[in-house]
Every structure is written in C-alpha cells, then in structure tokens.
Specification:
By secondary structure, the protein is α/β, with parallel strands linked by helices. It has seven helices and eleven strands.
C-alpha cells in the first residue's frame, strides 16, 4: 500500500505543481495586460479646462496603453465646445482607432447623448481583473441627494440667464467641509471596492488627487484637469502610480 501511495504522489505532485504554475502564469498574464492611463474630470466646455496640457498628454500616450476617461469629460452637455476643446474631443475620438478608449460616465456627462463617438466604449464603471475598479464616484455619493434642492435652484438661476453657481468650487472653498467630504467619499469608495472584491479603486469627482490605503484597500483619486497641476494614474503591468503632469 505504501508503494502505491508513493507512486501516486510521484504522478499527482508534478501535476499539481504544473497546474499551480499555469494558474500563476495566467495571473501574471492578466497583470501584464493591465496597461492604462486614467484621468478624470476634464470638464471640456469649462473655462478652467487645461486644454493645451491635456492635448500634450494625448500626443505622448505610450503605445499599447488604454486611455480611461473617468467621468465628467464634459462640463455641460447643453453647451457647445469652443474650437480648442472640440479639437481635444476629436483627438480623443481619433485615439479610439489606435488604442482602447473607455469613457466612464460621471454626473456631468451621464445624460449626454453620445452613443457613438469613434470606437470609444461608454460605461458606468470599468475593471481590470479583480485588481482595479474604476468609477467616477457620483453614484456612491449620497451627499448629492441631500443638496438636490440646492441644485434645482442653481439650475433655475442658470435657466434665466444668470451665471451658473459651481457647487464643486463652492465646496472646495470651505476647507473643513471639503476635507470631510473627501474623507466621506473615500470611505464609501473603499467599502464599495471591498464589497465588489477589488483591492484598488480609482475615482474622480472630488477634484482632489490622493492615494491612500486603509485595511488592505487602496483608494486613488486622479483629481481634475481644471487646475494646475493635473494628475493621472499610470497602470503598468500591475503597478499603479499616481503621477503629476510636468510642464
């Protein structure tokens, strides 16, 4: 009997070892396919959008990397874009024929009627294996529901020709409130990532770049392209780093 067990182990152990090696190779292959540049909150159409800087980023994108636009690409769907902002949108469209371009909708552009723009893929969220989940952040933001009445008043003021009040700018000017809000959204995002089984979650929405780890969950916010310096997330073979754009 001991001879039989020994002979079986000689067969089974190499098989198990080979299977584990294949699983490891599949996992590493998945990581090697994780190549992306992630940006958020461009707000094309806003006077604050850093169009020249973003155009420079587009022209320097590394080959083989996805481009993920994580929400609020447009500031207001109802307004037409000026020529420089329209050119940026056209460059993004052209990029979609040479690389995968994913547009994750945010609260400013989720209702924009753009079902077809080159080969761009429109999503509510985007994931790379179980390593990285990308969401804009507005759908886990219950604070917006509380201030919905204010938003209706703001939109009414805009509809009668007055300047539209920018809620995001108002919040950022009240530092204690802004700090609490960022912390609140980070906690919500980490909880959402844990529930969905992801180790890292990347958001926008708050216009504040940060990279933090709590209880094994990593939260990355890529900030906004409405003030200097802008940030982006570089995902390369499983390594993720929040980068600042250099002049």
């Amino acid at each position: 009997m001991s001879i039989g067990i020994r002979n079986a182990s000689l067969v089974l152990f190499p098989l198990a070892r080979g299977m584990l090696q294949r699983i490891g190779n599949w996992f590493l292959l998945g990581l090697n396919n994780m190549k992306a540049i992630v940006v958020s909150d461009l707000h094309l159409g806003s006077t604050h959008f850093l169009s020249r800087e973003f155009e420079n980023l587009l022209r320097s994108l590394p080959k083989g990397f996805d481009l993920v636009l994580n929400g609020d690409v447009l500031d207001d769907c109802k307004n037409s874009l000026n020529p420089s902002h329209q050119q940026v949108l056209e460059l993004v469209r052209l990029e979609s024929y040479h690389r995968r371009v994913i547009w994750v909708r945010g609260n400013h552009d989720e209702s924009c009627p753009m079902s077809k723009l080159g080969e761009i893929s429109f999503k509510s969220e985007h994931a790379y294996d179980t390593q990285l989940l990308i969401i804009h952040g507005h759908k886990i933001d219950n604070v917006r529901k509380i201030v919905r009445g204010f938003l209706r008043i703001r939109d009414f003021i805009a509809s009668i020709g007055r300047n539209r009040i920018n809620l995001e700018i108002c919040v950022t000017k009240i530092r204690p409130l802004y700090k609490w809000y960022r912390s609140y959204l980070m906690r919500r995002a980490m909880s959402y990532a844990r529930k969905k089984g992801f180790r890292t979650i990347a958001c926008g929405h708050t216009h504040y770049p940060e990279d933090k780890i709590t209880d094994g969950i990593r939260y990355i916010n890529t900030g906004a392209w409405t003030k200097w310096p802008p940030f982006y997330l570089l995902v390369n073979n499983g390594e993720m780093s929040l980068r600042v754009l250099r002049r």
